Structure formats: structure tokens, C-alpha cells
UniProtKB/TrEMBL annotation:
Keyword entries, A-Z: Membrane, Transmembrane, Transmembrane helix
Phylogenetic placement of the source organism: Bacteria, Bacillati, Actinomycetota, Actinomycetes, Micromonosporales
Transmembrane segments annotated in the record for this chain: 22-43, 75-95, 102-120, 140-157, 164-185, 191-209, 229-252, 264-285
Domain Phosphatidic acid phosphatase type 2/haloperoxidase: residue ranges: 103-206
Entries under SMART domains matching the protein: acidPPc
Location of region: Disordered: 298-321
Keyword Transmembrane helix among record annotations: yes
Full protein name: Phosphatase PAP2 family protein
Presence of keyword Transmembrane helix: yes
Cited Gene3D superfamilies: Phosphatidic acid phosphatase type 2/haloperoxidase
């Protein structure tokens, strides 16, 4: 699967970049930061938010041995060593492609996102409003690590590989995020906030890359529909399911605690996580693909005029004596 421009949008002609190309990453970074703050205020600082979030976390009682094994392996594979390896991988690929700016951007988003997550988790307070004593876990470190790893790899790879890697990365990050909720390490809001933090840092990295390449010749192209359509479909379906489920769980926690089961609340949280992951990967594949530079192609030589049949026969056979 490749990330190619559509036939209606040729990329062989250099086009000047407008202000939107440069300012879009900053706008997304600000929106992501606001989203993280709103999640903290709603799901950590309010009683109803804490109760809904905790109910979703405690409802993930998975008893299937194979599912448990997969989730355990996935969580254990996300560690500090994986972050270091990805930074080294980004450096090597950047050097080989002669794009040190991409390697530095990838390293910045990995380090910045993970350091920010750890600082937030350490310094933010969590009042005990739901009667479930637990230290602050907002945002999720595992989800931040997984998302930053996926974003970094997508950024440094060649254009033809980004689409396939984006879909694989989306699935990987979603499994990691859901697994942390199932293991009762994190609540759904922790994982969604981690996606927001990673997106903010990734957007800043893209902004700096675009500033550096502002005057470089070439054009840009959007990601393929083979990438965006699946993410749009998953995001729409999961988002609708998550919104309806969140309304039901909130109503249950507010007035009728036994209205919905814990399993339903867990599935609601999982749907919300999948929708958020699809949204941030849609943004990221567009940002990563948008930085591709395509050198202009030399104009083709004008076609020669077509000779008439008699002239062609004379040239071919010569004049008869």
C-alpha cells in the first residue's frame, strides 16, 4: 500500500506554499493541548467524570486465555528500550535519506511527548472523588510511548511506505491503549490524553520541519484514500458508538448505577479510544505526507509535425530515375 497523489492533483509542478501549510500544525498543537486540559478537568476533577472513567476501567474483565496472552505481551513490549531503538532507527533512516530534519523531528516528538507525559503524571493531582483510591495515572505513559514510536517511524520512512505503516501503527497504538485499560493501569481518559500530548508534540515537530523547508523547491501531495478512508470509517463508527455509550454510562452513574454493566462501560471506553486514535492518525498521515518535496520536471520537447504519406515514401525510398 502506498501513499500516492490522486490523478487530479499532479505533483510534478512546484507550487508555492501558503500560510495554511505552515500554520496548520500550530493550530493542531493548540487544539491537542486544549483537549488534554479538558479531559483532565472533566474526568479527573469532577465526581461524575471519575466515576464514569473508573467504571469503564473496572469493566474490562477479560477471561479468554489467548486474549490475555496477547495483551500481556503487547504491554510488556512497550518500554524505554523501544523508545531508544526508534530514535536510533530514525537517525539512521534520516542519514540514509539525507533528511536530518526528519530524524531530528522524530527524536524531538518522541522525547518531548514522553517527558511531558511523565511530568504531568508526577505533578498533576487526582482528588479521590470516586472512592477508588489510586495514584494519578493521567496521562498514560504506555500509550504515549506507543503513539510517539508510531509517529516517528511514519515521519522518517519514504513516502511509498507511510500508508501501510500508518494503518499498522494505528492498530498497534489502539491495542496498547485498550490493553492498559483492561489491565487497570489506566482509565480511558488517560489514554486519550496521551494521544493528545503526542499529537501536540508531533505537530510542533512538523511545524519546525516546514519552516526549515519553506523555500525548498517542489510540491506537496495528500495521503492516499487507501489510508484515509479506513481511518475515517473506523473513526466515524467508533466515535458514534463511544458517544452513545458515554451518554448511557453517564446517565447510569448519575441516577441508576445498575442501568448498564461494567462490560458495556469498558466497550464504550474502548470505542472512544479507537475513535481518538483514528482521528490523530488521520491528522498525522496528512502532516507527514504533506512535507514530501517533488522536484519540478523539465518540460517535454514539442512533438514534430507529422509528414504526409507521399513525403514519407519519398524519404524512405528516394526518387526513382
Amino acid at each position: 500500500m502506498t501513499v500516492l497523489a490522486s490523478p487530479e492533483q499532479p505533483t510534478t509542478v512546484a507550487r508555492p506554499r501558503g500560510a495554511r501549510h505552515l500554520l496548520a500544525p500550530i493550530a493542531i498543537a493548540l487544539l491537542a493541548a486544549v483537549a488534554a486540559g479538558a479531559l483532565y478537568q472533566v474526568f479527573v476533577r469532577t465526581t461524575l467524570g471519575q466515576r464514569v472513567d473508573t467504571t469503564a476501567m473496572r469493566g474490562g474483565d477479560v477471561s479468554h486465555p489467548r486474549v490475555v496472552e496477547v495483551l500481556d505481551r503487547t504491554l510488556n513490549g512497550t518500554s524505554l528500550a523501544s523508545l531508544v531503538l526508534v530514535c536510533l532507527f530514525a537517525a539512521v533512516v534520516g542519514v540514509l535519506r539525507k533528511r536530518i530534519d526528519l530524524a531530528l523531528g522524530a527524536a524531538m516528538l518522541v522525547i518531548g511527548a514522553n517527558v511531558t507525559t511523565q511530568l504531568m503524571k508526577t505533578h498533576l493531582t487526582r482528588p479521590d472523588l470516586d472512592g477508588f483510591s489510586m495514584p494519578n495515572s493521567f496521562p498514560s505513559g504506555h500509550t504515549t510511548a506507543a503513539a510517539s514510536v508510531a509517529f516517528a517511524v511514519i515521519l522518517v520512512l519514504p513516502q511509498a511506505l507511510r500508508g501501510m505503516v500508518a494503518l499498522v501503527g494505528f492498530a498497534y497504538v489502539t491495542v496498547i491503549a485498550v490493553a492498559t485499560v483492561w489491565a487497570e493501569w489506566h482509565r480511558p481518559s488517560d489514554t486519550v490524553a496521551a494521544l493528545a500530548v503526542t499529537t501536540a508534540w508531533a505537530s510542533v515537530a512538523v511545524f519546525l520541519i516546514r519552516v526549515r523547508r519553506w523555500n525548498a523547491p517542489g510540491g506537496t501531495q495528500p495521503p492516499s484514500r487507501l489510508v484515509t478512508v479506513p481511518l475515517l470509517a473506523i473513526g466515524a463508527v467508533a466515535g458514534a458508538a463511544g458517544a452513545v455509550g458515554l451518554a448511557a454510562v453517564s446517565m447510569s452513574e448519575r441516577s441508576m448505577p445498575d442501568l448498564v454493566s461494567g462490560r458495556f462501560a469498558f466497550l464504550t471506553g474502548s470505542a472512544a479510544i479507537a475513535a481518538a486514535a483514528a482521528a490523530v492518525f488521520l491528522v498525522w498521515v496528512r502532516f507527514a505526507a504533506g512535507d514530501r518535496l517533488v522536484p519540478p520536471v523539465a518540460p517535454a520537447a514539442p512533438a514534430r509535425p507529422k509528414k504526409s504519406g507521399a513525403t514519407a515514401r519519398r524519404v524512405k525510398g528516394g526518387t526513382k530515375k
